[in-house]
Design goal:
This protein is an alpha/beta fold. The chain folds into two domains: 166 residues, Rossmann fold, CATH 3.40.50.1970; 184 residues, Up-down Bundle (Dehydroquinate synthase-like, alpha domain), CATH 1.20.1090. Helices cover 46% and strands 20% of the residues. The protein has 13 helices and 13 strands. Strand 12 and strand 13 form a beta hairpin. Helix 6 packs antiparallel against helix 11 and helix 7 runs antiparallel to helix 8. The radius of gyration is 20 Å and the shape is globular. The termini are far apart. Bound molecules: nicotinamide-adenine-dinucleotide and glycine. The site of nicotinamide-adenine-dinucleotide has 29 residues, from helix 2, helix 4, helix 5, helix 6 and helix 10. The site of glycine has 6 residues, from loops.
Length: 364
């Protein structure tokens, strides 16, 4: 039997394991040992369900497993679809001891997690992430939610899973564009607190982009180590956890300004990382050579950093709804150097204006 890498998220009586490894979907023993619920609702989507739902359902054989397959895409991460999933739980008279299992990327995971957070005031939740982005980020840490037309992830709750099963074999079917988008979140971890990881990405990008299992397992493990350590110290984002949003204030604004239709989340984050690095250099913090390394790595991953036809003001308007706004002040995560990020509201407004102007309208 293949080995399973186990990482514990230390949250007192809500601690849980992240299992990382190949061919885990078919491991009934792993699910049996860590999820006892007899009634299970599996939430997936029209792309992932045909690929992986039969294998997962076989591992849950002997229980009452009901499946909900949502349409694919960020545009479907809505309250309406959440209500649809809740309706299925109610129609099937699922009790409080049921479990909701998310099989898919971050969209399915966030929505299913919010369902689990709210049904009967909270039921067991299991994450089975199938994108790189979800395996390195969204499936871990308990942020759940849906989008509102007025902003991304505006409605949600903290609800930790009881188990995360990251089957790295599922990444073999992931489109290349999605793999690249997931790498943006990995670069983010390096920038926030691990210059060694950033250097490793620079040196091993080719095997990663080719989907080399060992290289992917390495970045999944390291990303989860970093994220779980931050979450264990600051589960509800009173402080340090906000650093995990490096690049996201710019990125979320890009996604919202283009109605979630043009940019994948990871692509928008990649561009946001370059903007955060650029602004950090603009205000005299990040050395020019390090800002250039950030841009070069994001570009080598194949992520877009230019965006045509967007007015800086449009991005600024969307940034006002960012969850890091406090007392009307937009706080940003910026960089002192690669491997050291910090949260601040203390920056010249003109620097933000300049950064937006430099990146909008194609003048990257
Ligand atoms: P996604 O869920 O839309 O998945 C990307 C695409 O890949 C989809 O078309 C999906 O159907 C497809 N797919 C998934 N697994 C596949 C596989 N193994 N083979 C083939 N196709 C597959 O997007 P994502 O990038 O995984 O997640 C983005 C979402 O995650 C955003 O909504 C973002 O807000 C959220 N997010 C949440 C957190 C958090 O902490 N909760 C963190 C980061 C991002
Ligand atoms: N992706 C940011 C967080 O989980 O806090």
């Amino acid at each position: 039997m293949r080995t399973v890498d186990i990482l514990n998220v230390a949250l007192a009586n809500r601690s849980y394991p992240i299992l990382i490894g190949a061919d885990l979907l078919g491991r009934a023993d792993l699910f049996a040992a860590r999820c006892a619920a007899r009634d299970i609702l599996i939430v997936s989507n029209t792309t992932v369900a045909p690929l992986y739902l039969p294998r997962l359902a076989a591992s849950l054989a002997g229980r009452r497993a009901i499946e909900v397959t949502l349409p694919d895409g960020e545009a479907h991460k809505t309250l309406a679809n959440m209500a649809r999933v809740l309706d299925v739980l109610v129609a099937n008279r699922f009790a409080r001891d049921c479990a909701v299992v998310a099989l898919g990327g971050g969209v399915v995971g966030d929505l299913a997690g919010f369902v689990a957070a709210t049904y009967q005031r909270g039921v067991t939740f299991v994450q089975v992430p199938t994108t790189l982005l979800a395996q390195v980020d969204s499936a871990v840490g308990g942020k759940t939610g849906v989008n509102h037309p007025g902003g991304k992830n505006l409605i949600g709750a903290f609800h930790q899973p009881t188990l995360v099963v990251s089957d790295t074999t599922t990444l073999a079917t992931l489109p290349a564009r999605e793999l690249r988008a997931g790498l943006a979140e990995v670069i983010k971890y390096g920038l926030i607190c691990d210059a060694v990881l950033f250097g490793w990405l620079e040196a091993h990008l080719e095997p990663l982009l080719a989907g080399d299992p060992a290289a992917l397992a390495h970045v999944i493990r390291r990303s989860c180590e970093i994220k779980t350590a931050v979450v264990a110290r600051d589960e509800r984002e009173a402080g340090e956890r906000a650093l995990l949003n490096l690049g996201h204030t710019f990125g979320h604004a890009l996604e919202a300004a283009t109605s979630y239709k043009e940019w994948l989340h990871g692509e928008a984050v990649g561009a946001g990382l370059v903007m955060a690095a650029d602004m950090s250099h603009d205000i005299g913090l990040l050395p020019a050579a390090e800002a250039a390394r950030v841009r070069t790595l994001v570009e080598r991953v194949g992520l877009p950093t230019r965006f045509e036809g967007l007015a800086p003001q449009a991005l600024r308007d969307h940034m006002r709804l960012d969850k890091k706004v406090q007392d009307g002040q937009l706080r940003l995560v910026l960089l002192r150097r690669i491997g050291e990020a910090f949260l601040t509201a203390d920056y010249p407004a003109a620097a933000l204006t300049r950064t937006l102007a430099r990146h909008c309208g194609g003048a990257a």
